[in-house]
Write a structure and sequence with these properties.
This protein is mostly helical. It has one domain (7-410). Helices cover 73% and strands 3% of the residues. It has a two-stranded antiparallel ribbon. Strands 2-3 form a two-stranded antiparallel ribbon. It starts with a helix and ends with a helix.
């Protein structure tokens, strides 16, 4: 590897490398046990991974980070409110909310996509401003329309002695759907590992029999699954994961979204996403309806974000009516950038790695701040600063890379 290639790799992965060192340093200073950190990390992954993965398609389509996923989260919370009002609880309530989210989020996504087509090249700032604008309409809807013009009868949904929806919607009552997805099938980490490795082994063997996977690759996959099971037999490793209970259905849904992202890129629509993302002028000359493809990308992302927000709130068991959606776009965008994605390129691996590193820092930062400076709030301020800093750094690096390309073309 020559010096030029090494610099290129370092530049492309600077944010990820920085976060790895921050997380390692934070873990050492925080004083928290590894078992506790891993336990918290799995909980955060179950809540947030789906939302981060929802950003991939617009990035591939050249629209940058879809900060308008905030509006998808609003659609999900509107659906959740009505499910609680109607008293549809458990899995039925979750599925009903998910189905209601689709038309709402798709309609919002269509409007967002149409507007972003009018501001090509400024999609990210446009999406962020749209989120603020939509938040004003959302506040109006929940403060003055729901519970006033449109009456709500479910107990606890309306502000006592006033109008409008209560500040917190509790999903843990007999009208809610707390743990509707998480509680379907939960296993200790060891059992979950064996189940996943067994599923991977069966699928690999079937694909090898039908010659869909090369024998060498299949053997390597089987060996890796066996090695993971063997590694877990070491007492020290088992101790690290001793507190973890894995919500199998939730992570199964995340895995399905990963497969969807991979599968759609192999379709004609996926190839159009890539073509539009690489060069809109060339894509248009090739007969692709660029504006339509961009709208489809935003619609898919907004619907997926709505589902991701439902996964988040069912895990939390409640949500802040007027604030739960506000940081969705920021945190999901920062997480995917931490994994090595850019505003032009993103993969499932980068999204999941970024989600792990970003939320790992969130776990250890308050305790590290308290041990270093005597105040846990400093850790809180630091992680918020990092969230904005990562996005700013990604934009600067994108501009730097674009300038470098233009200079090389002129030269």
């Amino acid at each position: 590897m020559d010096k030029k290639n090494f610099k290129e790799i370092l530049r492309n992965n600077a944010v990820t490398i920085m976060f790895i060192f921050l997380c390692l340093g934070g873990m050492m200073v925080s004083g928290q046990t590894t078992a506790y950190v891993v336990y918290e990390l799995f909980g955060r992954l179950a809540r947030n991974a789906f939302l981060v993965l929802a950003l991939i398609i617009p990035i591939v389509a050249g629209m940058g980070i879809n900060f308008a996923v905030t509006i998808g989260a609003m659609a999900a919370q509107i659906a959740a409110l009505w499910v609680v009002e109607w008293g549809i609880s458990g899995v039925q309530g979750f599925v009903t909310a998910a189905l209601m989210t689709v038309p709402l989020a798709a309609f919002f996504g269509f409007l967002i996509g149409k507007l972003l087509n009018k501001m090509k090249g400024q999609e990210m700032i446009g999406g962020m401003i749209l989120g603020y604008f939509a938040n004003g309409l959302y506040q109006l809807l929940f403060l003055f329309i729901f519970g006033n013009l449109i009456p709500l009868k479910a107990p606890g949904l309306v502000i006592m002695g006033s109008t409008g929806v209560a500040n917190t919607i509790d999903l843990s009552t007999d009208r809610g759907f707390k743990y509707a997805l998480d509680g379907l099938w939960k296993l200790p980490f060891g059992q979950a590992l064996y189940v996943v490795c067994a599923i991977v082994a069966v699928i690999t063997v079937v694909l090898m029999l039908f010659k869909k996977v090369k024998p060498v690759k299949g053997v390597v996959t089987l060996a890796a699954a066996a090695a993971l099971c063997a590694l877990y037999q070491i007492p020290a490793v088992e101790e690290i994961f001793s507190m973890v209970n894995v919500p199998m259905v939730t992570f199964g849904v995340v895995a399905l979204l990963c497969l969807f992202n991979v599968g759609i890129m192999k379709t004609r629509l996926g190839q159009q996403f890539r073509a539009v993302g690489q060069n809109r002028t060339v894509a248009n000359a090739a007969g692709i309806n660029v504006d339509k493809v961009r709208v489809i990308a935003i619609v898919i992302s907004t619907v997926l974000a709505g589902w991701g927000q439902l996964i988040f709130v069912q895990n939390m068991g409640s949500f802040q009516t007027y604030g739960a959606h506000e940081q969705v776009g920021l945190y999901a965008g920062a997480a995917i950038l931490v994994g090595g994605a850019s505003i032009r390129r993103a993969t499932n691996k980068q999204a999941l790695l970024g989600c792990i590193l970003f939320h790992l820092l969130f776990i250890v930062a308050p305790s590290a701040g308290k041990n270093l400076f005597g105040d846990a709030a400093i850790g809180e301020y630091f992680r918020v600063f990092v969230s904005y800093g990562v996005i700013a750094m990604a934009l600067v690096m994108h501009a730097w890379g674009s300038t470098g390309k233009k200079k090389s073309l002129k030269g």
